[in-house]
Specification:
Layout lengths: L10 E5 L3 H12 L3 E6 L12 E4 L5 H9 L3 E4 L6 H9 L8 H7 L2 H10 L7 E3 L13 E5 L9 E4 L13 E5 L5 E9 L5 E3 L3 E6 L4 E7 L5 H18 L3 E10 L2 E8 L9 H4 L4 H9 L13 E7 L4 E8 L1 H5 L4 E5 L10 E8 L3 H14 L1 E7 L1
Parallel strand pairs: 1-2, 1-4, 2-3
Antiparallel strand pairs: 5-8, 6-7, 6-8, 9-10, 9-11, 9-13, 11-12, 12-15, 13-14, 15-18, 16-19, 17-18
């Protein structure tokens, strides 16, 4: 018998109120869900598009409990949260996706590596740092990563030779083989409560070296079809190994014809923003479908796309000032997303643009053109 739904379809709680929470809430509300967010900032990007806002920190047991208790299902837009209280709530019967146990494992990047190794997922060689001498275990250059708290280039240090040891991260960390990769790739994979999977296209990523933040994403990736299939298969196997529910961003390296998994994001991811305009079902709607038990949507690419992150310009802070918007919006196929952050600072993610075109090369060309003149500055120079 066909199930009957009443409005609202369900009450969804989201831990976090940044741009990912905003775009998730917008899709949830479009589909008829009630959305409550937990955020330390009542003026965050997701607040204006949510039905209810609980003001509290991501480690506040009382506020997290309040969110979970008044939600039919709880999810996250940031993994650096109090997983201990979420584990207690899940044990009491509350629905939380991805599971708190998965989140606890994945927010520790060393534990991520251990999980990948156990399941035979290819990844760069790594070694736990238990003494200054262990920084030399893999030779130089080597990448040092903090086990916890790293995000958008933070908590990562490239040690190029022994002299760099004095600049090493002073926190629990591990070292990872330095990979001379040809490309950085990513694949978004959704998995439902029932175990159904939808895999999005492989995308190519380019990073802003100044802050190690993703700069350009292109779909399709332009990879050889055999390598593209290899990347998709590895991404799907990774999410199966996690036994995860929701959407996951699997970041990878292509090096010497091999695909190696770099890191996993247990949530919507920057590399999947292009799906809003370019895919049948965007990553945010797919995540909502997955965690609420609804059938997953099609993940096919409708049109080639290029996405550029709009970062706060170097030398500016304060209230955002946008330059070049009219010129950008005159370009056919361009969509502009501003996240609603009321303060900018250098390299802060303030928005993104996506350009779609029947030809991949033209989409990239237009996006790179826009990057030259569309700027987010601030009222104050710093």
């Amino acid at each position: 018998m066909e199930k009957i739904f009443h409005y609202p379809l369900a009450r969804i709680g989201i831990i976090g109120g940044g741009q990912l929470g905003k775009m998730m809430a917008q899709k949830a509300q479009k589909m008829g869900f009630h959305v409550t967010i937990l955020t330390p900032d009542p003026d965050c990007p997701a607040a204006p598009v949510s039905d209810m806002v609980i003001t509290g920190g991501f480690h506040d047991e009382e506020k997290i409990s309040e969110l979970v208790q008044q939600s039919d299902v709880t999810t996250i837009e940031i993994e650096h949260i109090n997983t201990a209280i979420l584990k207690d709530m899940a044990s009491a019967g509350h629905r939380i996706y991805p599971s708190p146990d998965l989140l606890e494992m994945i927010k520790d990047k060393y534990q991520q590596k251990e999980m990948l190794k156990r399941h035979g997922i290819p990844t760069p060689a790594y070694h736990f740092v238990d003494s200054p001498g262990s920084l030399k275990k893999l030779g130089f250059p080597v990448v040092q990563k903090a086990c916890r708290g790293g995000y958008d280039g933070k908590g990562v240090m490239v040690l190029r030779d022994e002299r760099d040891i004095e600049k090493a991260i002073q926190a629990e960390s591990f070292i990872e083989e330095y990979i001379p990769f040809e490309m950085e790739l990513a694949v978004m994979v959704a998995r439902s409560i029932q175990g159904d999977i939808r895999c999005y296209p492989v995308v190519a990523m380019e990073f802003d070296d100044r802050a190690n933040i993703c700069d350009l994403v292109t779909a399709p990736s332009g990879l050889d079809p055999a390598l593209e299939k290899q990347a998709r298969d590895i991404a799907v196997n990774t999410v199966k190994a996690l036994d995860g529910v929701g959407i996951f961003g699997v970041e990878m390296f292509l090096s010497n014809g091999k695909i190696l998994v770099n890191e996993i994001a247990p949530r919507p991811h920057n590399s999947g923003h292009y799906t809003i305009e370019a895919c049948v079902t965007c990553q945010f709607e797919q995540h909502i479908r997955a965690i609420t038990g609804l059938p997953l949507g099609a993940a096919e690419l409708l049109c080639p796309a290029a996405m550029i992150n709009l970062l706060g310009e170097e030398g500016y802070a304060g209230r955002p000032v946008i330059e070049g918007l009219e010129r950008a919006l005159s370009i056919p196929g361009l969509s502009f997303h501003l996240y609603g952050k009321d303060q900018t600072r250098p390299y802060r993610k303030m928005g993104h643009i996506t350009v779609i075109d029947r030809e991949r090369s033209k989409a990239i060309e237009k996006a790179l053109e826009v990057k030259q003149f569309l700027k987010i500055k601030g009222e104050k120079q710093v």
